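Hey L., structure's done. Input below.
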Amino acid sequence: MRVTKMHGLGNDYIYLAPAREDEYDWPELSRRVSDRHFGVGSDGLILALPSKVADVRMRIFNADGSEAEMCGNGIRCLVKFAIEEGLVPADRDQVTVETLAGIKTIAVFRENGVVTAARVDMGPPSFDPADLPAAVEGSGPVIDLPLAVDGVDLRLTLVSMGNPHAIHYVETDPAEFPLERIGPLVEHHPLFPKRVNFQVVQVLGPGEVRHRVWERGSGITLASGTSASAVAAASRLRGLTGDRIVDHMPGGDLILEWDGTGSVFMTGPAVRVFDAEWYT
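Output:
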């Protein structure tokens, strides 16, 4: 099987353009190919498929085999993959992608003719807990929701970017937070019937934040585009930041823009790491 490994800020995925959508058991294949000891090693598997409503359709499976609605880092790389594999015209400067979170529009940036980055219309954030879903009464926004997990008192801001996010703000470097211990407990908490992505965020100034993420189905990742988008929306909603921020994550920086209405826009790199033949 020919596979391509790509990453956006270290959030890495294996990419395939299968001849048939039913060619494999995709959840099982994602678990196997994502294994960093016995597989290729990745945060998950992304399929580039034909679409009747967009230029290309994305399906994304986490490292545990669960299917996700969207991935901001993954979709940038998907567009690069689709252009370089001839799935969309090579001179296209804008590409539409069908996802489980709706159709996303991506602007493509090139250097010396090579796609190096993209700006993604991530769609509008939702602060209604029913959209995550979360077992919280009312229509939101939900800010500073108290949750005690394994002796740690959290104050959560809830955001949906087509997938669910719970954000906890801290005063110190998020690297000091016990994310390895607390992340899985928040992800699987009964408050979130479809599980949740969990972010720990430090606001450095009106245009700058630092954050780490525990991704639903993948664990700690070096970056997450939907998480960064949720953080940008939540931080502006709370009056902590302005319309444009730089989000520093362990894998690198993303630029996020949200003026309080409409879509969040995310800009970041897309890198092709290697192509290989994986013997399944």
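The first helix runs from residue 26 to 34. Residues 23 and 253 are 36 Å apart (CA to CA).

-- N.
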